[in-house]
Amino acid sequence: MKKNQPFRAILTTVIVSTSLFATASAARQPAIAKVDLTKGEKNPAEAPHDWTLGATGVRGWMHCEKFTTTDARQIAITAVEAGSPSAGILAVGDVILGVGGKAFSADPRRELGMALTAAEATDGKLSLLRWRAGQQSNAIITLPVLGSYSATAPYACSKSAKILQLGCTALAKRMQQANYEKINPIPRALNALALLASGDDQYLPLVRREAQWAANFQTDAMATWYYGYTIMLVAEYQMATGDKRYQD
Fold first, then answer.
1. Residue 21 and which of 67, 133, 152, 225 are 20 to 30 A apart at CA?
2. Can you give the pTM of this predicted structure?
3. How do beta strands 51-52 and 135-142 pair?
4. Residue-averaged pLDDT of the chain
């Protein structure tokens, strides 16, 4: 399988960093009341969206206005993945107030992201200022040590290469699970494109299966969106492999 370098760089960046996007409806989103989670106040019902918190293995809710979290200073843990670095350390209902023993002074996603990057480059120890049941303490999460990003990342970057490898391994495992065909067509196409862009031939049977699905895909709803991604998968697959069975 040929490696499409520009396309691979784009997908590596998608895996390396958390994707953020806004919709047209965001401009019409009503103002959300800011709450203090340490005083028993709850997440507003009209703002249920939470976020994946990088390599920690948890998701968290924070104050958000039009898909930006600039004014947030707390993160309420909403889910903890079993077997992740946070399992047994963080729990649903915990509130993260800061990193490195200091309270957040800016956007928590930015400060947490910087702390994650620093931990992965050194000893893997991520120190979080945790609030639980009225008490504050430092919780230490141990992350895999991946090194630092190169100045040319994602090109010529060992850390980017490791993240791409780990991401593709996880995607391939997920794509072989039962009922995988029921997921949304857009992430399904993107998952296959990520494996294709890796250039690793071990994923070719999975990519071929997904290209066949994409070539036969039909929909009556969100046609522009769904067809755009599925057609892209078929086109990239044909260019990378020379397999023209699905071009018509």
1. 152
2. 0.73
3. unpaired
4. 88
